[in-house]
Structures are given as C-alpha cells and as structure tokens.
Amino acid sequence: MSRPVLEIRTSPHVRSGASVDRIMLNVVLALLPATGFAVYAFGLTALCTLSVAVITCVAFEHLLCKLSRKPTTVGDWSAVITGLLYGLTLPPGLPMWMVCVGGLIAIGVGKHLFGGLGFNTFNPALVGRAILQATFPVPMTTWVEPMGADRLHTVVTSSLALPFSRPEVDAVTSATPLAAWKFDQELAATSDLVMGYTSGSVGETGALFILAGGLWLVARNMMNWRIPVSVLATVAALAGLLHLVDPAYPPATFMLFAGGLMLGATFMASDMVGSPMTHGGCVIYGVLIGALVVVIRLWAGMPEGVMYAILLGNATTPHIDGWLRPRVFGTRRRAGEEGDA
Amino acid sequence: MRLFGRKSFPHGVHPPESKDATRALPIRQFAFAPLLVVPLSQHLGKPAVPLVDEGQEVVRGQPIGRPDGFMSVAMHAPVSGTIRSVHPAPSASGHMVPSVFLEPFPGSTQEVAEGTPCDVETATREEILAAIQEAGIVGLGGAAFPTHVKLSVPEGHHVDTVIVNGVECEPYLTTDHRVMLEQQDDLFHGLRYVLKVTGAERAIIGVEANKPDAAESLRAALPSDLPVTVEVLEVKYPQGAEKMLIDALLGRQVPSGGLPFEVHALCINVATTAEIGRLLPHGRGIQERVITITGPAVKDKGNYRIPIGTPLRFILDTVGVSDDLSRVFMGGPMMGPAVASLDVPVLKGTSGVVAITTAESRSTTEAREYPCIRCAYCVDACPLFLDPSRLGLLAKNREYDRMAAEHHLMDCFECGCCSFVCPSHIPLVQLFRVAKRAVRKAKAAS
C-alpha cells in the first residue's frame, strides 16, 4: 500500500443527509400548490405580484450579502421562501412598487437587521407586510374579485400604478369574507371558502392546496405538525364555543377557512426560526396564536388578525424556550431548582 | 421503557447500519505483524509498569506490564518474540504513550502461556476481581474502562440485575454479533464470574433486533443453572449506551452524573464477558481481540482475531484497500476517532477499523456550515434530553461554565446524534468535547 493522505475529521463520520438548503427548497415546493391556485384564481395579476415579491427579496438579499462582504446566501432558498410567502399575503392588484418596497423591508428589516438566517425572531414576510399595512392602509385593503373573466391575459391596472400616484382600480372589487362579516354581518358560504371562490390575499384562499403542501412537509419531517394543528384546533374550539353561546358569532368552519388562517398557521407560524424548540412549547405557542386570532377577529377594530397573532407569537418564542426546557435524563422534574442529584 | 413494539429508549437516531458485508463472516485468526507496538496505557487510568527490558525474550501471554494501583490493568505479550525497546510512541488518540516494541520470532506459534487458573466455584469475590485485573481485562465495547473496577460494587450498594450488552448499535461493527454466535460457552461461563462478583440475582442479555440469529441461538443455548434471559431491542442508535440500555430494559434512569449501581444495575459488554470466561479458567491475559475490519475502502472485509499492538498499516496491507482511501477510523462511525497515522496499533478497546473512500467521506467534507435555524432536530435526537442547539450557541461564545452549570454539559457522552442530524452541519459534538475539556481543566486548576 502506498502512503495515503488521511483525512482527519471528528466523528460522526456519517450524516443524516439533512441540510438547510434542502429543507428550504422543500418549503418552496410545498408552497407551489397554493401558488398555482393563486395564479389560477387571480390570473396574471397574482403572477406579477408574486414574481415582483420573489425577485425583490432574492435580489436584495444578494445585494446585502455583497455589501457586507459575505458569501451570498441566495443559494439556501430562504429568501425565495420569504419572497413567496410575502407575495402570497398581499392583496392582488397592489401596486407593484409597493410590493417592491415591502420586499425590501421584509429582507432588510425583518431578516438582516436581526442578524440574518436563524436570527430573524419575527417572520420576515410578515414584518414586510405589517409595515406595508401601516403605511398604505387603503391599497392593502382593496380586494379584487377572484375568477375574473379576463384575468388570465390582463393585469389589473392598479398593479401598474406609478409610485406616489393614486391607483385607479378598474377591476371588480369586493370585501373579504371577514370584512363582510365584521362590517356588514354577511356570512360567506362555507363551500365558497373551502374552494377559494372568495376575495382575499393572493395565496390565502386556496385552503385545500395550502393543507396539501403542509402535509407534504410534515411527511418529510420538515414541519412540526403540532404548531398548525394547535393553532387550528384552538381557533375551532374557541369559535365553536362562542358560536354555541351566541349564534351571532360566526361558526367554527367560517373562522377556519376565512382569511389568512390556513396560510398563516401552516406556513408562517410553523417557521422553524420563529417557533419554539420543544413539542410542548410548540403547542403553547400554537394555542396562543389561535386564541389571539379569535380575539382580534371578533373584538378588535380590524377584520383579520392572523398576521399580528403570529408576530406576537414569535415574540413569545424565546420566553417559551426559556421556561420550558426538556427534562434532562436522570434529573428530577424541576432540575435546576432542586440541585441535581 | 416500552411504549409500542420492541423495548427501546426515547429519542436517538437511525444511521444506516452498514453491517451486511461482515455480519455473516466467521471470526478468522490474523497473522503476526513484523513488529508489534503494545502501549502500556490502553485503558482509562494509570499506565501499567513495564516488566521487560530491551533485548529480553518473552513468550505469548507472558505479562509485560503490571498494574500500577487499582485504576490500572496488566499487559501481556501478544506474541513470542524479542523486546526491541520500551519508549513512548504515538497512539490513536495522538498522545505519546509508553509502549513496548516487540519483534516476533520467525514462525511464532499461536500457543499461549498458562498462568494460575481462577476457578469460579472455589475463588472468592476478591480473588476473581484480582484475576480480572491481572488478565488485563478492560471494557471491549470501546470505552476501555478497567473491568475489575466496574465490577467492584461499592460497599452498601446492591446490584440486582447485570445487563450483558450485545446491542452493538454502532454502524459497521459486527464483532459482538460474531462473539455471541461463536463464543457462547465463554460468554455464559464469564457471566458466572460476573454474577458471583456482583451478587446480582439475574442477568439480561440485550441484543438489537438486527441480530435475530444471535438472539435465537443464545436463547436455545441458555444453561439451566444461570438466571439469564435474552431480550431483543429496537434497532436505534445509541441503544447500546449504558444509560439508554438500562432505561430500555429496566425502565430505570441512571441519575445525572451518577453510575448504574445507583439504580441497582450493572452493564458489561458481551465480548468482555466472553473474554472473562475464556481467560480466567486458564490464568491467561488478553493478548488479542476480535475486530471488524470493514468499510467501502477495504477489500477483504471480515471479523478477525487480531493480536493487540498490530499496527493499522499491517492490517490494511493484509486485507487490501482501494486507492481512493480517504479516512480510517477506529470503532464505529458515530463515535470512533479518525487516525492521523497508520503506524498506530490496535488496542484492547478497538472494536473495529473502518476505512472509507472519498465518495463516502463527501457527506462530511463538503457540508457547508449554516447558522442554526432552530429546527429542533438535535433536541429530538439527544438521548439525554439536552438542548444541543443552545449548548452549541453557548460553546461558540465560549461560555463553558454556563454550559456545565445550567445545561448539563458534563452529562453529554458524545454519542454524536446531534451532529448526525444537524441540517446546518454545525460540529456540535466536537464543540462539546472542547467545552468539556475546558471545564475539566478549569476544575483541576482550581
């Protein structure tokens, strides 16, 4: 035998094959069914919104890496997820330049100001959307009707509005189911909600497609199912109870399928970076978000509360992780306090 | 702890087993190398005191080192030959260890010198423990902890169950598997000594479900005079870790920082037990052991009985390796250290020598490190329910005291599950090794 060059590496010498970029790519793939339905329901307008959102986020991520003289992190797909999720939460027909501004905020403020991947306490897509909502309240609550006849070959003119001009809306607009209930006491049909024949954000209406993507991630062990399940179960239980007490409150099915709950619970609350590490912590976090959604929707001034509920949930994550540590093998239930044996 | 199906412990990982190449191959005797290097410290504790001088002739099995105190064991000549020198030599760990260089006589036989027999019926507990120490027996599962120390149950404590560890959860390794199939009489006889010394009422042989042939044939051969049963465990890493095995079989958790006797249990490896049964009746010492030589880079893979002190280069030359050999590690891939030089010898604690090629090592060499994304894979993998993610962040800030005081760093036994699953490829277990060393050093200094 010749004298081989031996590699010195520390054990373990085998790896599971999991990697950050593979997890992120799978999240992108899991979002594709919902994205496909969004483009089907809102046509070319949705495609433009989503493209601008993704391109802005990826390009800005690349630029920020270059400016800070670090290797670009575009290849890990996390900026694509932020862009796609952000785009899916926007009203179709939002002027493109606003989409662009929100994307810059999502990546610049939501992600990199907090320290980049792994340190972004708050979901970057929702940070972008929240600031946009506060800055441009009217365009952010103008909703185009889905399934418009010429949607597949024309773009809603408001999308093309120039910066700082007043956007003209030529498409048919209608209130979202949540706004219709809150302000006009109109309850949308459950079948329309489930099938996505209602107005709303680009990607929040295709409930079944969102759930299909979520199931795929759970099957691949890339999502903690306890989070979406506890969010949805809490909303269903609280709403069902309230509806039972006072039928003026909307039923549980309406609360589950209206608005951004499905998209938020499945893809945003469950974001690994912003959610707790332990299974028990995930359940507490999910219940908290679910309860906040019900409270904001039913008693606050605005019709929808998923975005704020998740951002508040994100804020509690470090505290939940601090309180709820796994019990170390061979220690009594409250280890640190009793002095370990 | 039993939830559904087979006995097991919570958490853990499932690395590819990679045992097919050698599991069915009977143990074969290995040839003598032209020069053997026998380190006088192959165990935890104090090195043995050399009994031989340069130029002296020794016979196979003759003691060449005597134990230096209680935390030490004897060394025996692995072959008849001439002592060339006694001086420090690099060991697999990279440290310089006083070693005996032994050149075999041409045409040396496999005959082994006999000593004073230790009969299990007539010997006292103390005589058996002394005989185990004189036989140079250490934990053959890899830890190389002196067996007579492990079997000395402290005054005032009672061990009710001896667990014979035949789990062999590390990928690639099949030595314990072959010993369970081929050395059953030695194993049962060794168990008689162990039960007598510990005073335990019963013994359980724990076997992972990927060795059904071993479990079945052991069950069929159980001697009627021994209170021993065979239990089959789920295939999961690290099922063979002492704490995990006791939890899986008895449902008892060894206290954090404690030892198994505190929960009235004692674990001993199958090969160690078989070695007690093989050596003590003849008053012999360990001069060879069964080692799995395997890995994608090895041509003639197998389970070999190899003299202690045989250099890796001679072993790999004999079995043949492919040209794209990239890494050699001793033991299994989850915990075994990679060697820097092929001139280091195999030791009593060497259960396997695995050689892999560039293709297999790619999964660890080409892995780019990302920041922690809090996926919690490590939290769900750690068999001790530590928080490797948080420990990793603290280690990178060198907050070693906090890791030990608040996060049970010193409980970590470096099984490698956290590094195995980490999608960010953070070298968690290596960070913990460094941290543990720093904590021990600071403790020793204060």
What does this entry look like structurally?
The complex is a heterodimer of chains A (341) and B (446). Chain A is mostly helical. Chain A has 13 helices and no strands. Chain B is 29% helix and 19% strand. Chain B has 14 helices and 16 strands. In chain B, helix 1 (125-134) crosses helix 4, helix 4 crosses helix 7 (270-279) and helix 11 (388-396) packs across helix 14. Classes of the chains: A mainly alpha (341), B alpha/beta (446). Chains A and B meet through helix 1 of A and helix 8, strand 15, helix 9, helix 13 and helix 14 of B.
Summarize the topology:
The complex is a heterodimer of chains A (341) and B (446).
Chain A: H1 20-67, H2 78-88, H3 96-111, H4 124-135, H5 177-184, H6 190-195, H7 207-219, H8 226-245, H9 252-257, H10 261-268, H11 279-299, H12 306-323, H13 335-338
Chain B: E1 28-29, E2 36-39, E3 49-50, E4 57-58, E5 63-66, E6 75-76, E7 81-90, E8 96-104, H1 125-134, H2 147-151, E9 161-166, H3 175-182, H4 184-198, E10 202-208, H5 212-221, E11 228-233, H6 242-250, E12 265-269, H7 270-279, E13 288-294, E14 302-307, H8 312-319, E15 325-330, E16 352-357, H9 358-365, H10 377-381, H11 388-396, H12 400-407, H13 417-421, H14 428-445
Parallel strand pairs in B: 1-14, 9-10, 9-12, 10-11, 13-16
Antiparallel strand pairs in B: 2-8, 3-5, 4-7, 5-6, 7-8, 13-14, 15-16
